[in-house]
Structure formats: structure tokens, C-alpha cells
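S.,

Sequence below, as promised.
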Amino acid sequence: MSELDRYDYELPRHLIAQQPAWSRIDARLLVVDRKHNSLEHKHIRDLPEILQAGDCLVLNESKVVPARLVGYRTQTGGRWEGLFLDAQSDGFWLILGHTRGKITPGESISLLNTQGIEDLELLMVSKDSGGNWIAKPSSSESTNALLDRVGRIPLPPYIRAGEMVESDRENYQTVFARIPGSIAAPTAGLHFSNALLEKLDRQGINLVYNTLHVGLGTFRPITTETLGEHKMHAEWGTIGPQAVETIQNCRQKGGRIVAVGTTSVRLLETAASSDGVLQPFNGQTDLFIRPPYIFRAVDAMLTNFHLPRTTLLILVRTFGGDELIQRAYREAIAEQYRFYSYGDAMVIL
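The prediction came back faster than expected:
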């Protein structure tokens, strides 16, 4: 058995959530207590009773951009699909694309808006060293304005084969999303409503926000023989001085640092020094958390249930303890929890 084989498991297809819970806070929550080696079934709405005054809840306020692009090759009419990755300072876009046949530099793509009407052309200029296309939009409007017209919400393929419905524009976004840049939702944050956040705040839970834009690195499959050979694509993140000060004060007073999502875990651990002192951070992180990693900044985490054989599952099992998290996944399957982006969650204490 390879290292990666240890992170495989069987999931009945009907447990892959195709829609979110009717109310965000009604999602189920599996409470994983490492100290007592125990599992307990709750709901997201129970978080005010699970967390304690003085704890610090760290949330990722990255906003999902409508990054999925649909169109056709202008010259041949062949169908084309793509994914917007980034906008460069000179106005060029970095995109992934696929179509039948081979696109050559100088070709153009006609992008369709959400009504299926031709709206924008992309001139395919060249490929970068990573195999992504550098493309020039035919309009000088802002990237966000163009994507709002021609982009679709980039749902993962296991949700309705990636085909969005209008409600996904709201459902696949956290209520506190503020800074555009992610090509997938930081899904643990999808469970919070404004009312729940206000209740937690009134209870004395410190709410702290950071930003880590979810990119391809999170989803890139592991193809290496060993975990140590796998290289994460870097993702941009930032955590400011005020957030760091709040977290440090919380910890000094005995409060727990509760990261919401693997994105917050990775950013906090990137920003922490070897002795656990947190510093403001602004830049790229390619941190791959795997055994025998020692956590320095995070005391607890809230996370969704993740796909097998992924860096996300490896992170969670490294944090929660391998045997306990395997037992938690078996329990969640037996109890018919809903899995993946629109599914239920666990909190690891």
C-alpha cells in the first residue's frame, strides 16, 4: 500500500451534496473531541454552546469569482470551456482551457454570457511555463465587470457536473466574502449566517478575518509516489497586524484559536514562526501539511468532509489524529451525513 492509498475511502454517491442545507446553520456538525477520543452529533447552530467565551474564530473572507468560462473557437465554431485563474497588471488574463483539437497562439475565443449570447473575445497570446494560456480580452472594462457578465460560478464537477443554477451565486459564497480572488469557495465558511456570527460575537467569541484565495493548488491531484514529492501550487494570502494582535491576545488569555476551513489553517500555520509566534503575512504560501507536521498556531478547526486522496484530507487527518478522523468519516457515512462543498461539517477540538 502506498502512502496515498491510506487516504482512500468509499463514499456512496447519494451522500455527495448537490444543494446546500435549506438554512446554512441547519447543516449537521460532527464534534470530534481529541482529548476524550469521542464523537458527538450536533448542528452548526449549536456552535455557541460548543465554543467558549474568549475563543478566537478565524474566517477566510476571500470571495469566489465567476471564473468558469464558456464559448467557442471563433474561427472553427468548436466548443471551448475555460477557467479564469488570474488577471495580470497589464490587463492580460491567465486561464486554463480545453477544446477538441489544438489551439494555436493568435486564435480567438468568443465567450458567451449567462444568457448564451456572444459577449467578449479572448485573444490567445501564448502559454506560460505551467501550461496556462495568457489571453487578452477584447474589452478594457475591469476584470470583475467582465467576469460578472461572462463568468459562471466554478462549481466542482461532482455538483451537477459543474453546471450552476442562479441560486449558486449566493449559496456558493460566504456571507462575509469581501475580497474577490478564489476559484472555489472556502467551504467551511458557507455554514455561517450573519445572525450566527452576531450571536457568537455577543457571546464573547472573537471574530477575526484573513484572506487566502483558493486556487488550483488546493485541488491539484497527488500523482507522486510519496507525499514528500508532491509540490503544492502557491496561493496568495494575507493576515494583517490587527488580526494577529487579536489572536495573540486571545491565546495569552487561554482562548483557543479555531480556524474555519483548511485555508485558514494553512495561512495561520504559514504566518507562525517555529516557536508559534504569529506574524503579519502577505504573500504566497505553498505549505503542504502532512505527517509528521507539528501545528503551531491552530488549536481547533471547523471543516467540511473532503474527497479521498487529497491534500485537504491529509491536512485534516494530520490535525485530528489519523485513527480518530478515520473513525469520524466512517461514522459520518453510517449516519448519512452530506459530503463535500455543499455538505455537512465537523469541528475538531
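The chain has two domains: 4-64+169-348, 68-152.

Coffee later?
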